[in-house]
Amino acid sequence: MPVSKKELKSQPGKISLTFKVKKEAAGDAKEVYLLFEGFGWEPEEMRLLKSGDFKSRPIFVSKDGQKQYQYRFKLVKEDGSEVYDNDWKADAYVSNPFGGENSLVNIDQGLSSEKED
Question: Whole-prediction pTM value?
Fold first, then answer.
């Protein structure tokens, strides 16, 4: 479940974050949602790719703003049940108020300077 972090050449100081959930991690989920601290934890539906992976839309954050963001994934199964999962390759993990952990993305760690898609 890698996070792509790119500094935008066309908008200096802006970073694009794109989240992906691999088919293996999604299992039999028919829908996957990103729960992101920067969205107030409101679920953002991820797009199902032909490969079976799920991908978020790009999220733009300021390089000079918050340095870390928490997130999780909500997987909705065929029977309507929901399972929450973390990114298997997150930068770090932090305790949440529900007795579990959230994934953590560090804006400055692993940042590339590629052109935006």
Answer: 0.88
